[in-house]
Specification:
- There is one protein chain.
- This protein is mainly α.
- It is built from 14 helices and no strands.
């Protein structure tokens, strides 16, 4: 069966499988760190600081990683990302007494570099495997890759909470290391050499995009992901644990279910946004979906302020937010691949995901600080404000 597939489909499957394996461990590791260090008594701000280097080095990695991908080939940057993630897991699987804040931040820095090398390589590679002007096919492939990744990230969230309960922090990390080693060996053997390598060596000055469309889309992406992470990354898991008294497995399971739902919607975004599976007016599409998303955190905040069934408000509100956010994210992921230059595609994609990582960094830091100082409602209002900025930026895309 596999032997009858075209070489492009085979490479797509290898890249997707690689991305899936990485995503499982990435989601699990994030949940492990949040729950384990909350269990040890760390404050929300301290937990947020554990992810500071993870997000910061994601910014640097996307910028430099796109340049390296264009010079060396996307297969090399993808496999190097897997290597760094394995090293990060091993670093954390040491004697718990060694796990100071600085040490965990250093391990998370490696994980952040690994994650964004892997993601940038996977998204860039899709552009090279789809024929020119086949926008419907490109939209569907990008949506399926991104949606399946996020669904598996949800499984990773659940896996992180479950493994922590079953094997403890160290045992969970060794299980994840074994899984990723297997994916790494398969990728080394099967992934095409020099995928995405630019015909001429790009100069360092080419790191920053000169395209108005890509710059506008990147600015919108920064605000979009900051709006999600400002209440989702640290504030929400800690709120569920401390306010509702949920245990690790329940928190991990709920977050997992949300991400899986989010991934399913994201994979089916082409069917939702356009019957022809192709968004024909980017500015109009992005503005509409971002405006709809803006209303949801504000509605949740108002309901919580009035003490209206807090648990149900969080559960239902988060599902609504996840569904609409997934469509926004899928549109963005398609458009950056569409707008990127085919020769050295990773340069444009890397710059765009640098903005994405900057948004996550802002959201993560504010999530811990705003929650500890003012509570979850303040995080939700800030989320709506950031989304309003996203709407205004998106109007200028065309």
């Amino acid at each position: 069966m596999i032997s009858t597939l075209s070489s492009e489909i085979k490479q797509y499957l290898i890249i997707t499988g690689n991305y899936w394996a990485f995503t499982l461990t990435d989601g699990a590791l994030r949940m492990l760190v949040v729950l384990y260090f909350h269990q040890l008594g760390y404050s929300p701000i301290s937990i947020a600081m554990l992810f500071l280097f993870y997000e910061f080095f994601g910014v640097v990695t996307n910028l430099l990683g796109g340049w390296l991908g264009a010079r060396l080939g996307l297969n090399k940057t993808m496999n190097f990302g897997l290597t760094l993630q394995i090293l990060s897991l091993v670093m954390l699987a040491v004697n718990p007494q060694w796990l100071s804040v600085a040490y965990v931040m250093a391990a998370q820095a490696l994980s952040g570099i690994a994650k964004d090398l892997n993601k940038m390589s996977a998204k860039s590679a899709i552009k090279l495997l789809v024929p020119e002007n086949a926008d419907s096919t490109l939209y569907k492939w990008v949506a399926r890759l991104t949606g399946s990744k996020n669904a598996l990230k949800g499984v990773g969230f659940f896996m992180g909470g479950a493994l922590l309960g079953l094997f403890g922090f160290q045992g969970a990390l060794w299980v994840m290391t074994g899984l990723l080693l297997l994916a790494w060996m398969c990728s080394l053997i099967l992934l095409k050499q020099d995928l995405g390598k630019k015909k001429f060596k790009p100069k360092f000055s080419e790191l920053f995009s000169k395209s108005r469309q890509i710059n506008t889309l990147s600015a919108a992406r920064l605000c979009l992901f900051a709006s999600r992470d400002v209440w989702f990354v640290v504030a929400l898991p800690v709120f569920l644990s401390s306010t509702f008294g949920w245990n690790h497995t329940l928190v991990g399971g709920f977050m997992a279910a949300w991400i899986i739902f989010y991934g399913i919607v994201q994979a089916n975004a082409p069917k939702i946004t356009n019957r022809k599976n192709k968004p024909t007016t980017p500015a109009k599409q992005l503005t509409f979906w971002a405006l709809l998303l803006t209303l949801i955190p504000a509605a949740i905040a108002v309901a919580l302020s009035n003490h209206i069934a807090p648990m149900w408000v969080i559960v239902i509100g988060l599902l609504c937010f996840g569904g609409v956010f997934a469509i926004n994210s899928s549109l963005h992921s398609y458009l950056i691949v569409k707008f990127a230059d085919s020769d050295g595609v990773s340069l444009d994609v890397g710059f765009y995901y640098m903005a994405n990582a900057m948004g996550r960094l802002m959201g993560t830091v504010f999530s811990g600080f705003i929650y500890q100082s003012y509570g979850l409602e303040a995080c939700l209002w800030l989320s709506s404000l950031l989304l309003l900025v996203t709407v205004m930026i998106s109007k200028n895309l065309d």
